[in-house]
Write a structure and sequence with these properties.
Layout: H1 2-11, E1 15-18, H2 21-33, E2 37-42, H3 54-61, E3 66-69, H4 72-82, E4 89-91, H5 106-112, E5 120-125, H6 134-146, E6 151-156, H7 162-171, E7 178-182, H8 187-193, E8 196-199, H9 208-215, E9 220-222, H10 228-231, E10 239-240, H11 246-258, H12 260-277, H13 280-300
Parallel strand pairs: 1-2, 2-3, 3-4, 5-6, 5-8, 6-7, 8-9, 9-10
Helix pairs in contact: 1-2, 5-8, 6-7, 6-11, 11-12
Length: about 300
């Protein structure tokens, strides 16, 4: 904390903004000792630190002048787990730069990745973590293939679950139809090559990759966890399926193959929703409002 205090004295910020609990534990007390305003952003739903002393955890969170959560659901969950006052919590949705995902041709995107233009690509972009439930996705894809549908599953990202996913793919005998891309900086190009985006997560805050898929004009199938229903309205801007239900997921995938136009309409509405409510500029404007409010009340105090 002394090192953080030294940094604050040297930089002389008006606001100290923390983005995870460990950073908050070190920075918030230092900022308050130096009479600086504090804003904290809570990105996910997990509240596990200092579980042995919830009153200390609440005190630390309450050092924040404002706590930003990335979805309404995340805010409710955070309040219930910590006891922090609702007045201190503000929702600011994550945002994406939609221009990054514009101007791509699906045919050219597939060609650049060595995928035939007429191949249907189911895809996912995320860290390979158990909470993302790639196993349910792989099982659903295998079910689609078993019904004689010719398609490809492209999984973009890396992480601790990679070995388990690859093992499951081999067990199902579908290795020729699954492409494990790994980590890449070329996410827009990979999204452009996808026909249907899959994210059967078991838990989310507000998924950036779902927003990126929506901004790419790719229809989305996801689970109703965290803030996802605040982005995806089932049957309107995408489809929602039950957690861990590979059969339900595969049935929606088959529905997409049989009625692609219906999903194209959902994707169009999803793109409009992103541009209305989930842009980078909208997020920045909301943070600016919070900063101004915090500084105003801090100076009055």
């Amino acid at each position: 904390m002394l090192k953080v205090m030294g940094i604050i004295r040297r930089v002389r910020p008006d606001i100290v903004h923390t983005h995870n609990f460990l950073a908050h534990v070190n920075a918030a007390p230092a900022a308050k000792l130096l009479r600086k305003a504090v804003v904290h952003t809570k990105h996910g739903r997990a509240v596990t630190s200092i579980s042995w002393a919830p009153f200390i955890r609440r005190w630390l969170y309450n050092l924040s002048d404002k706590i930003v959560v990335v979805s309404k659901e995340t805010g409710v969950s955070f309040r219930e787990k910590t006891g922090v006052s609702e007045r201190r919590i503000k929702v600011v949705y994550n945002g994406v730069d939609t221009s990054v995902f514009e101007g791509y041709s699906k045919g050219e995107a597939k060609k650049s990745l060595g995928i035939p233009e007429d191949t249907v690509v189911f895809g996912a972009v995320s860290r390979l973590d158990r909470v993302k439930d790639h196993i349910t996705m792989v099982d659903a894809f295998a079910d689609v293939l078993s019904k004689g549908k010719e398609c490809l599953l492209m999984i973009v990202g890396d992480g601790p679950e990679r070995e388990n996913i690859e093992r499951r793919v081999q067990e199902l005998g579908i290795s020729d139809h699954v492409r494990m891309v790994g980590f890449t900086d070329e996410v827009p190009g990979h999204l452009a090559a996808m026909d249907l985006f899959l994210q059967p997560s078991r838990e989310e805050g507000l998924s950036i990759t779902i927003l990126e898929a929506m901004a790419s004009g790719v229809p989305v199938v996801a689970t109703p966890v965290g803030g996802t229903p605040e982005m995806i309205e089932d049957g309107v801007t995408g489809r929602l399926v039950a957690i861990g239900d590979s059969r339900m997921l595969s049935s929606v995938m088959i529905e997409f193959l049989e009625e692609p136009q219906k999903f194209s309409l959902m994707a169009e509405r999803a793109l409009k929703r992103v541009k209305e409510s989930f842009t980078l500029s909208t997020m920045a404007n909301e943070y600016e409002k919070i900063y101004r409010e915090v500084l105003s009340s801090h100076r009055i105090g």
